[in-house]
Fold this protein.
Amino acid sequence: MHRLFLSGLFVLLIVGSTAHAAAPRPNVVFIFADDWGWGDLSSHGHPWLKTPHLDRLAREGTDFHQFNVLNPVCSPSRTAAMTGMFPSRFGIHQHFAAPALNLARNMPDWLDARAPTVARFFQQAGYRTAHFGKWHLTSRNTHGAPAPTAYGFDEFAVFNGGAETVSADLHATPENAVKFIAANKDRPFFLNVWLHESHLPHVPTKASLEKWKHLDEQKRVYAAVITDGDNAVGRVLEALKAAGVEQNTIVIFSSDNGPETTGTDKGKGRPDAETGGNGFGGYYSVGSSGGLRGEKRSLFEGGVRVPFLVRWPGHTPAGAINNTTAFTAVDLLPTLCAAAGITLPSDYRSDGENLLAALTGQPVRRTRPIFWEWTGKAAEPDWWPRLAVRDGDWKLALTGDAQRVALHRLTTDRAEAFDVAKDHPEIVARLTQLALAWKATLPTTVDPSCISTVDRTAVPTTPTAPAASNAPAAKAPVDRAAAFTRMDTNHDGILTLGEYIAGLKGAPNLDQRFKNFDKNGDGKLSREEFVTPSGK
């Protein structure tokens, strides 16, 4: 009897071990929206936006309320999600623009193709990998930029890729994802679905505009844009179900930064605008941070705390809200690799943590501090911080020289409404030291291999010294056409005041100079107004 029992136990152990070893590796679908604010979900309490597919994702998974991206604009935010490293480690601290502007910002022209990426690790582990939608790890105007295949993707169809990369249609992203899922249902896959919504220009479909025709003009356009994004999520979810893989797929929805500032520009869109149109302008950007302070381009929570929904049937608790784990974009790579059983290379050094336990519903408290650097818009009241650090419950925002600081305890003050720096000088001193020490580790020069030799060759770097003379050197003529192209970052043929100020960062009297160019007083500059100003 004893021997029979042992034999039976041995068989059970063998069978159990074999079943465990044969368990399929989970697929991963990472849906990354653009400028989609924390409050832009009906499940987060928005009063008139409706997001039924995202609400379904939240019901069937876990909603993490303390998720942060690592920069308040797209390119560096996406760099962090791809590499598991702070974007400033690659010299990427604003969005990739034309090479001339990258040069002025002391930035490379693309993410180093040698950088570790989550896609490459999954690809090396036998996964089929794909990226559909926005790229923006370079600029669409940049020549010589690596294609997505250089970063570990087997397939791609992108917009905002390099000059040599064919641009895909904005609304084709979910369709490409659906086809990929159907074609790879019998093998493990890693899929990025990076949506355009709700970035400018707004290009809502006719059907979504019709759905919201009862709203006022401003709300109607934004509601339609959000509906298009939510419908894209729904198509991906249905494709997983149709392929029979939804039970073994980790689905993540998030956004690259907080909502765009509401502007005055209505753009050139029409009530029936489709993707081929010029789109609607910033007047319709009425996204919500859900009560968080700040918005896009701000290191306060409204700029960097974004939605983060995770569905993994049988692993991630359904209908749960996690309001305690400080999860960040740099945690994605180590966490997803752990979920897939992928061992990271011994020389890989992530800035994030493996928070797989949090995905499975366990209480997790992160052990590493979180750092942010921002070198773009600097204005009151919410864009002045150049650095920020979070450690535990505390977050410190500070200027580059640490002469101005603001301290908030996020667990009791998510809106960052109460600066308690004067009450906790010891915490301020500790976090200031952490932030400045981290900043000192960042590169100050650009890797030459990440610079476009085609686009930067004609750009002067240092003015030639004048010949020996007491006369001042003559100023080089201003190429206004080139300057207009450089500053028109959304390529709509119009310069807004924001684009003008960003393009001439640090110059004096910019508001008045903008008005001098604005011949018709409509609050925006056409190419003609800027290139041939009055008196020229």
